[in-house]
Protein: BioF2-like acetyltransferase domain-containing protein
Organism: Candidatus Daviesbacteria bacterium GW2011_GWA2_42_7
Amino acid sequence: MDIRQSPQWGQYLSSIGWTIENVGQAQIFIRRIPLIKRSVIKIQHQQNPLPFSKIENIAKKHRALFVLVEPEATGFNEIPLKKIGYRKSSMSLTHTATIHIDLSKPEKEILASLSENARRNIKKAQQNNLKVKIIFLNQAKDDTEFRKFYHLLTNLTKLKKFYVPGYGEFYKKMQAFKDNSILLFTYQKADPNPIAVVWLGVLKDTAVYMNTGITKDGYQLLANYLLVWEAIKLAKKLKLKLFDFEGIFDPRFPKHRQSWKNFSEFKKRFHGTLVEHPGPFIKWHSKPFKLLYLCNQIFSR
């Protein structure tokens, strides 16, 4: 299951203003636009086939401007989408590629499959005498540890110059995933302040690399390599089958997520299997809005 089709993701989006409709196993996300009494609809990485007739009914019910479908890779066929008016879209709201690591393999085999660079940096990090602290969020008494995570995340945004929502929204996300996620911190032994963190989601048989944060010291001591390796080992210990890196830069869509290039190279050093989703498809339910959107695309080039 992709994280965006989990009940926890639905709870998170509901808490920040989205309406969720469930059709079979599909979660359909609807966002109202009060000023014009219309809505936008997105469906992300749902297992195929999609229930198109029911999606059409929901689009009419909520007076959708458009429906954006970002399909899951397995079993996808674009012909049914095109027959009912969907077209490939330049709009993309979630990743189109990721990397999966098969956790059914022995730990030594997984380690041997990593790039030479990754193995070397894991070993160097271990020699730096870093300690790892694991926090199961459903056992946390308050949000103290999660605030440490968010502090490291915002530090990373300053280093790499990208945007994340405020703490209030992240807290709502944490509340949704509290029973199904773990924080892994790294510390220098003589320092009580963590230098890196990974937020790991646990969904059925899959570990999901949700977010990360780090300091300059963390980079210099290669704590990010150590944390990913420790997260993989923990996922195996929990008897999970798959480790999902939850998105990388996709050269098939070079205009999307260019800021992901550097951390995508980091993730690729752990090798694994490349998973490529088909990319976004859109069906417009408002011709004026479609024209406005297309004009904006033309003049913003």
Summary: The mean pLDDT is 95. The two ends are 36 Å apart (CA to CA). The CA atoms of residues 65 and 289 lie 7 Å apart.
